[in-house]
Write a structure and sequence with these properties.
Layout: E1 30-31, E2 34-40, H1 44-60, E3 65-71, H2 73-85, E4 92-96, H3 112-117, E5 134-135, E6 138-139, E7 142-143, E8 149-154, H4 155-160, H5 172-182, H6 196-207, H7 223-237, H8 253-259, E9 265-269, H9 273-277, E10 285-289, E11 299-301, E12 304-308, H10 315-325, H11 328-336, H12 348-353, H13 357-370, E13 374-376, H14 383-398, H15 404-415
Parallel strand pairs: 2-3, 2-4, 11-13
Antiparallel strand pairs: 1-2, 4-12, 5-6, 7-12, 8-9, 8-10
Length: 417
Amino acid sequence: MKKMRVGAVVAVAGVAVALTGCTSAGGGAADGDTVVVDMWAGSEDDTAALEAQMDVVREQNPDIKVELRTAPWGDFFTKLTTNMASGNMACVTGMNSGMLASYTSGFTKLTDDDLATAGLAASDFAEGSLEILSNKGDMYGVPFDVATMLTYYNEDQLTAAGADLPSIGWTFDDFEAIAAKATTDGKYGFGIGMGDFQWQALPIAKGGVQPVAQDGTLQLTDPAFADAAEWYAGLVTEQKVAAPVASASDGGWGENQFTSENAAMAVDGTWNAVGYLTNDAGFAAGMAPLPTGENGNLSLILGSGYGIAESCENKEDALKVLGSLLSKDAQDYIASSGRSYPARAESQPLYFESLDEAYREQVEATFVAAFENVQGQYVSDNWAKVGTFVQPSLVSIYNGQESMSAVLESAQQQFGN
């Protein structure tokens, strides 16, 4: 693969940073007959991209007045909490898969009839994608993008160490062998994860089970998941193929170890694919799906989208606006700009066409393979609290001061009811 020096590693969409946002002090479901759209935006470019999608909404619905409001990620959810409590949510509100469990009471449950009113059908979307904004079997929103976790690798570093390169169909035995071979000359084979998705991805893939059941029951101590999580911590403490984390504030530790060329591999989302391949450091990077274990290679399908507020008084128009935001024209725009991998199946090829030919084939092959065995993320009602409890403990776990099993057991006891 050619070395490239274009761009930086930034989250393009989905779980980390999305394309849209919300900036008004009050949520405001509507202003008269105006349908308000609240979403998050991390930059002027993000807002401009969302405005382009709003142009599609206006063109398709000339009789409906729409208003876009945006705010940074953190501010968005702070305001959403306030607006939901006061019954003042925007009729069309953005939502992320990892945050949904805390906000389901603010959204109306969507039916097939609602999708039809929006001009949408379940068959329009990639397999599994409608699970992204579903909870305990009910659908609360429709995704505009999809993502999953991948293994990224430094081809130069692995080749210099005489290690094989990760590839489609590789196993956890392959992963361990590559990581061990690449741990040399003060470098490590793997960058251990601190973020929820980053550290849980390999245990979920290895164990073949999520830490939460489909009905929302917390199962952190399920033997398959707990054993795989213990193995993951052992990459630092036992196999010593990953460096311990310096501080709980180092939320992107593994990814930063990778981009700084201190670790040959790291796990991160598809939303960062282009950034890693065109890294500023200039090393030849590659990607592969998560490795396969004895229990398969289960991966989560993640992403962001839009739902309709339970308090919305103009649901029919709101559904039409939502439908336009998820229409072929809007999804084609997202895909062809290369900003995000769209949820609408027919638009997905445009994403690959937008990429540089130097890495287009690798990205497409990896994405196709990675999305073959995905499952929507299951979360418990206390899932946000679980993450807040476990994440700071990862530093002690990786430093050998606490065991992963003890931390998971404690979290299960506190938040499992």
